[in-house]
Design brief:
Blueprint (H helix, E strand, L loop, with lengths): L3 H7 L2 H6 L1 E4 L2 E4 L5 E3 L4 E3 L2 E3 L1 H13 L2 H7 L2 H4 L3 H11 L4 H8 L4 H29 L29 H11 L15 H12 L7 E2 L1 H9 L5 H10 L3 E3 L6 E3 L3 H7 L14 H12 L6 E7 L5 E6 L6 H9 L5 H10 L4 E8 L10 H16 L10
Antiparallel strand pairs: 1-2, 2-3, 4-5, 6-8, 7-8, 9-10, 9-11
């Protein structure tokens, strides 16, 4: 099983920045190993995408952006302190020094400028260091073996006791995600955690208790359930439904427990994309170009105490990445992250407050207009102290 460390190490700098690499007819996400195959059409929200374009859709929907994913990696991987992570996240959103200072509550605007200078110095030093290591590679015959510690995001193992799953809940979820019946294919895997657990328990029932499977056998079994068998396989392990050897050579079903057994039924199915010709690919590419990217203001609200986190983004589609970071425990706002852990995901809602209206004016500055829009919402909601997560 290819772990995230090997994916990142195998990729070039340009491939890491892009978020995926091409291996023959397959495109592989360097953030999670998700794969798309050339010649297969992938549907998403009523739009059909060719494989490479859909890989970009996957990265945007699941990871928010490559930048957010890399920023959220453990300090031992990206080498960034919490302050540096916070600063880079704010800079990425295009914030001015005064806005960054207000958001993070550190120093003054001049302090932020000094941090910018320090980060630029770090960038220049990193280039020299990379060049040195490349030159050293062919000369150092005594170098140690490659690090074996996998680079992984923090994912808690899920237990049935975390969810109050009734028979009615289970039936509704299975009906929604197996529209052709539980003997049919899984329609989608984009769903909330509780629903994922129900669906994954359902899929886990396809494995025989007491039997070991090779990775190829697991992939073949899961490929008959959902095209992205690698993602399903990874979640089955993360949710402690499947276990495996460290090298991924063998997999086996864990004891699901009585509560899990009562919450799922067996189902079999196949889900494969339809192959199209070159003309169809061009048509899909044109359709993808028509998908609108809108800037705006969004809000993460704690429904238990009414506190809000407000921010702007040049692409509202990436706000799913905020939820992903909160689930992984890597959100840049530590107070928000702490209360997410305390109250649980179900206590929070994420909503778009306003979409930036673009003006048909050659002098229109979208970045400046977005900053002014954020300022207006901050003044209106005053998300400070007991009312919010801003300092």
């Amino acid at each position: 099983m290819e772990n995230i460390e090997s994916l990142l190490q195998a990729a070039s700098l340009e491939e890491i920045k892009r978020g995926y690499r091409q291996q023959g007819e397959v495109f592989v996400c360097v953030c999670c190993g998700y794969q798309t195959e050339s010649g297969i059409v992938y549907p998403e929200d009523g739009v059909l995408y060719e494989s490479e374009r859909y890989m970009r859709v996957h990265i945007e929907k699941v990871h928010g952006s490559v930048f957010e994913y890399l920023l959220g990696l453990d300090k031992s991987v990206n080498g960034l302190s919490d302050v540096q992570r916070g600063l880079l996240g704010q800079f990425y959103e295009g914030k001015k020094d005064a806005e960054v200072q207000a958001a993070l509550g550190i120093g003054s605007a001049s302090t932020i400028r000094n941090h910018r200078f320090t980060l630029r110095e770090k960038e220049r030093q990193a280039k020299i260091f990379l060049a040195l290591m490349e030159l050293l590679r062919s000369k150092d015959t005594h170098k140690p073996a490659e690090l074996a510690q996998p680079v992984t995001r923090k994912m808690s193992m899920i237990d049935a006791s975390l969810f109050d799953i009734s028979e009615e809940d289970r039936e509704k979820v299975l009906l929604k995600y197996f529209p052709e019946g539980t003997d049919g294919p899984l329609a989608s895997f984009h769903m909330q955690q509780k629903h994922k657990y129900i669906v994954l328990c359902e899929i886990a029932r396809r494995f025989e208790s007491g039997r070991t499977y090779t990775e190829k056998q697991v992939n073949e079994l899961l490929g008959r359930v959902y095209p992205d068998y690698a993602e399903i396989r990874r979640y089955l392990v993360d949710y402690a439904l499947l276990d495996r050897k460290q090298d991924g050579s063998e997999y086996w079903l864990r004891d699901l427990g009585e509560s899990s057994q009562n919450n799922v039924k067996a189902a079999k199915g196949a889900a494969k994309g339809e192959k199209k010709g070159m003309n169809r690919r061009k048509e899909l590419q044109e359709q993808a170009k028509e998908v609108k990217i809108e800037a705006g203001i969004y809000c993460i609200r704690n429904e238990r105490n009414g506190k809000v986190f407000v921010d702007s983004t040049p692409n509202l589609k990436t706000i799913n990445g905020q939820k992903f970071m909160l689930q992984m425990g890597t959100h840049l706002n530590r107070q928000l992250q702490a209360e997410w852990k305390e109250y649980g995901e179900q206590a929070f809602t994420i909503e778009v407050l306003e979409v930036l209206k673009k003006e048909d004016n050659p002098y229109f500055d979208a970045k400046d207009a977005l900053a002014k829009l954020l300022k207006r919402w901050m003044e209106q909601l005053e998300p400070y102290g007991d009312k919010g997560y801003h300092s």
